[in-house]
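Q: Convert this sequence to structure tokens.
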Amino acid sequence: MLRLDGVHVRHRARSGGLLRRDRVHALTDTSLEVRKGEIIGLVGESGCGKSTLARVLTGLQRPTEGTVAFRGEDLWTMPGARRRGEFGSSVGVVFQDPSTALNPRLPVGRILRDPLDVHRRGTERQREERVEELLDLVGLPAHTVRSLPGGLSGGQRQRVAIARALALEPELIVADEPTSALDVSVRAQVLNLLVDLRARLGLGMVFISHDIQTVRYLADRLAVLYLGRIVEEGAAAEVAGAPAHPYTKALLSATPSLLSDTERIVLTGPVPSATNPPPGCPFATRCWKADDACAVAFPAPAGPDGHRFHCVHPEPFARSTS
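A:
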């Protein structure tokens, strides 16, 4: 459905003075395929480029270089009206914090109707019926239609945000840390709702999180980002069960599972600058396996089909299966 090829995103930084502005390398040479009906988990620590990648996937950010193909057609060469109509109705977005993603002055019914009004879907009566369907779909009572977001709990607000993302019956939902602003007791409810909606509607989903242990059980495939680069990608069970890249192994150790005994890996060393990234592996400054070969160039992709990684010294189990 969506394919990114060699995508770079560079932003102008505030540093560098008046005559020369530094550039932040938010994404570097990123390639990713999003297939219809699957869940892809994007994981990595804060500042690794997850939200920038989400903006590229949803058409909110035009790449500096590279292509974004929607059903085989370059998204950014499409006429604006087609891009808004076809792509805009096929991809829904759930933002991180529902308290800022919803207009506090509009009742829930108006919030859910807005996408239908903008895209002129159906008659007035059909739009009202669709709002009722959406509330039922996400498990909210009918009287919520008259509520303001401020009168709802965090979990209810996120359900409204999910309902809005579903208003135009999209094929893909991009959820950017949809549970991070919620209480722990509510997170499981929202996650279960997303899994249920995927099963009932056949939705594809890109689920973005810093918690790899949560995503591993939700996603079909995992992509691990570090400093704007995808360093490992593959089936969720393989990446989480036998991580090839040291950074993936460190992420898994940072959020230990109750089902396995994982030794905590404490990373030391400086984090490279996003305005002046190193020519080699960006993780080399913090990696316990790094040597001179890691600093020469970013490693070429390696590994078996369906499980690719960029590492000169991958974990032994991954190397033996390649």
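Confidence is low (pLDDT under 50) at residues 318-322.
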